[in-house]
Design a protein that fits this description.
Layout lengths: L13 E5 L3 H7 L4 H22 L3 E8 L7 H24 L3 E5 L7 H13 L7 E8 L1 H17 L10 H6 L11 E4 L18 E4 L9 H12 L9 H7 L1
Helix pairs in contact: 1-2, 2-3, 3-4
The protein binds farnesyl diphosphate.
Length: 248
């Protein structure tokens, strides 16, 4: 499948991706895990480029979870280096493509140099108007909800917010994704059937696409296949088929 084969109707506005299987990809080749992450970076570039060309508005990539800090120190250090290299090498290309880079997660836990680089990358692309590339780094869905709950509680305690006025919109406004629509499509590579603490609140009605393809092998063609599959889905948001055809 090529980009021009994809229908431009019913495109997902927001795609979220759990990029999994780098370690297994490397192990299958008797290579160290980090090699899988390095080749996975080429998939990152391919998916960003495909989504931008297709007209996806938001792309959220799960690059490093809060729980990933518990991996062996050498792997954590290598992943930090990959983030830095990604920003150093790619930020000008992303900027030229009018892509706005944002992050979500506890990025202040990053080593100082990676943190500074990430901040400068965000700053550089801040006013871009094309696709939003949202990189989840030191991110956890439960942690995000706890953070929102604390902020809301503090506002209520200061008298800035009436507890009776707390509703779904109020909670959503206190999440990292406050300015984004919920994901329409969640892609997970490497066949695992779990959410792994990603965007727990936001995926309430998201369509899921799980493929056995390991992340380093997930490129343009696989991205297009996932989007095409999404386009065949009938989203009901808890209602019945009959109700949807009446409203159509
Ligand atoms: C999961 O594979 C992958 C990760 C934990 C890291 C993903 C990170 C990148 C592809 C590079 C950084 C990305 C950006 C955008 C800078 P795994 O190690 O859990 O694989 P396994 O399940 O086969 O062991």
């Amino acid at each position: 499948m090529k980009i021009n084969d994809l229908s431009r109707e019913n495109l997902p506005r927001h795609i979220a991706v759990i990029m999994d299987g780098n370690g297994r990809w490397a192990k299958n080749r008797s290579m160290p895990r980090i090699h899988g992450h390095q080749v996975g970076m080429d998939s990152v570039r391919a998916v960003i480029s495909t989504c931008a060309q297709v007209g996806v508005e938001y792309l959220s990539l799960y690059a490093f979870s809060v729980q990933n800090w518990l991996r062996p120190e050498t792997e954590v250090r290598a992943l930090m280096l990959l983030l830095k290299t990604f920003i150093q090498k790619e930020i000008d290309n992303l900027h030229r493509a009018n892509i706005r880079v944002t992050t979500m997660g506890e990025i202040d836990r990053l080593p100082r140099d990676a943190y500074e680089l990430a901040r400068s990358g965000l700053e550089k692309t801040r006013d871009n108007t094309g696709m939003v590339l949202n990189i989840a780094w030191s991110y956890g869905g439960r942690e995000e909800i706890v953070r929102a709950a604390k902020e809301i509680a503090c506002k209520a305690a200061r008298g800035e917010l009436d507890p009776a006025a707390i509703d779904e919109r109020c909670v959503a406004r206190h999440l990292y994704t406050a300015d984004m629509p919920d994901p329409d499509l969640l892609i997970r590579t490497s066949g695992e059937m779990r959410i792994s603490n990603f965007l727990l609140w936001q995926i309430a009605y998201t369509e899921m696409y799980v493929t056995d393809v390991l992340w380093p092998d997930f490129r343009e063609e696989e991205t297009l296949r996932a989007i095409a599959e999404y386009q065949t889905r009938k989203r009901r948001f808890g209602r019945t088929d009959e109700q949807l055809s009446v409203n159509a």
